[in-house]
Design the sequence.
């Protein structure tokens, strides 16, 4: 078993880390404060585009791109999951970095969908400006009125009408829709309620400016609006787009959703590992620089054990995610189904616990905005729901684990 990252990954990790240290970290706190106090917090601060331009100049751009499949060579040869994973970890240390490098969700997932499933025209119209960072996108699946953990429940509709598709319904938690550059919505709607449960839904590319699309409100995640990106509740009323905006074909949404999620979960999890590392690093600094009861904080009570447990938990989680990345690269999603769900359960919980420990050791300061810990905790907590709640992923793991035993049980009966 090989534990070293490849030379290419190491080189990129070093350059990305250096860029974050020298270009992003010095301005990040100021930039968040400026966003919060701006007359319009939904207008991105100008320095953001400047950082993007610098990152791009240095070739630190779209590093999430997967290894090119036939027909996609013109969009660049990306990295295998095992090579991108450590880069995602480094970018996770900063809330801004994934955006600066054009490697943020949900744009990355939407770009992968377009790469893999888009027609040449769809790629030209939407993928190219997304890869350029000229526009942003949202993924509109979850609905306020149905339990969306079960994606077969989605009740918004996408109905073929002559040469058009007509869309009606309401979505929420559409991440990224608050951004003024968000021009593309990847919408999932029900087309044929009589079809097999996994063949009822269709994915459609909807320009945000289409008449009938309305952002009803932006939702806070535990009091944070995540400006300038945000999460929206969006209504679709008789929205009409050409049938050529359908992805792959009517009733093919589940196939696309499956293909979209494997690498995306590795990215989310590695970013959270980076965030947990940052929380541990802040804990070590704080715990060795503050004194109470005549000792550094780290030497009080069970704090050393908590630090050791955090290190063990982070390292365990990283190994599991890297193994998942390796399986995705070598066996595809079908060979990594259980692991993709395992990391989706294990990593947000681990990060939530480590960050919670860091908050506690920071005392009152840990809950303030003077440290990035409160926002980090919210991020980890949200990831226990976003992309499917823990329970759904545990069910996947248990189902795969039990399958041969239940088959024997049924045979024996
Ligand atoms: C910050 C954030 C960003 C998001 N971004 C997006 C986005 O960009 N696009 C998008 O479409 N959606 C997005 N979501 C939505 C997210 O994917 C859904 O919230 C999630 O899939 C759960 O759906 P639900 O909220 O309808 O919960 P429900 O389906 O109502 O489930 C509620 C609870 O029921 C329990 N439950 C459900 N199923 C099971 C089960 N099988 N076994 C045991 N218990 C179960 C769980 O405790 C679950 O949390 C985002 C959510 C958050 C918080």
Sequence:
């Amino acid at each position: 078993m090989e534990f070293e990252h490849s030379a290419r990954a190491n080189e990129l990790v070093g350059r990305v880390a250096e860029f974050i240290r020298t270009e992003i970290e010095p301005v990040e706190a100021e930039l968040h404060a400026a966003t919060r106090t701006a007359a319009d917090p939904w207008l991105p601060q100008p320095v953001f585009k400047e950082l993007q331009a610098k990152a791009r100049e240095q070739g630190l751009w779209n590093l999430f791109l997967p290894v090119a499949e036939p027909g996609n060579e013109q969009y660049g040869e990306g990295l295998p999951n095992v090579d991108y994973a450590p880069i995602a970890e480094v970018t996770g240390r900063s809330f801004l970095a994934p955006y600066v490098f054009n490697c943020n969700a949900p744009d990355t997932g939407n770009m992968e969908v377009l790469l893999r499933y888009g027609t040449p025209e769809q790629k030209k119209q939407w993928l190219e400006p997304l890869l350029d960072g000229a526009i942003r996108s949202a993924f509109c699946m979850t609905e306020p009125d149905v339990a969306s953990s079960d994606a077969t429940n989605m009740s918004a509709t996408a109905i073929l009408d002559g040469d058009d598709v007509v869309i009606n319904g309401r979505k929420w938690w559409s991440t990224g829709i608050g951004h003024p550059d968000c021009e593309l919505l990847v919408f999932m709607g029900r087309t044929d309620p009589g079809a097999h449960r996994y063949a009822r839904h269709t994915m459609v590319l909807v320009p945000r400016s289409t008449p009938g699309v309305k952002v009803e409100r932006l939702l806070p995640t535990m009091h944070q609006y995540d400006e300038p990106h945000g999460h929206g509740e969006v209504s679709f009323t008789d929205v009409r787009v050409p049938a050529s905006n359908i992805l792959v074909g009517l009733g093919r949404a589940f196939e696309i959703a499956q293909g979209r999620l494997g690498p995306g979960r590795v990215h989310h999890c590695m970013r959270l590992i980076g965030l947990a590392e940052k929380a541990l690093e802040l804990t070590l600094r704080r715990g060795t620089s503050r004194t109470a009861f005549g000792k550094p904080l780290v030497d009080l009570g069970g704090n050393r054990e908590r630090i050791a447990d955090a290190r063990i938990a982070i390292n365990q989680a990283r190994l599991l995610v890297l193994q998942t990345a390796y399986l995705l690269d070598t066996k595809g999603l079908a060979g990594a189904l259980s692991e993709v769900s395992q990391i989706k359960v294990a990593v947000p919980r681990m990060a939530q616990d480590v960050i919670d420990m860091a908050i506690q050791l920071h005392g009152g300061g840990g809950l303030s905005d003077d440290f990035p810990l409160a926002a980090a905790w919210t991020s980890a907590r949200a990831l226990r729901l976003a992309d499917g709640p823990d329970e759904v992923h545990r069910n996947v793991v248990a189902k795969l684990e039990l399958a041969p035993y239940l088959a024997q049980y049924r045979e024996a009966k």
In short: The chain has three domains: 7-118, 137-247, 254-412. Residues 254-412 form a domain with the Butyryl-CoA Dehydrogenase, subunit A; domain 3 fold (CATH 1.20.140.10). The mean pLDDT is 96.
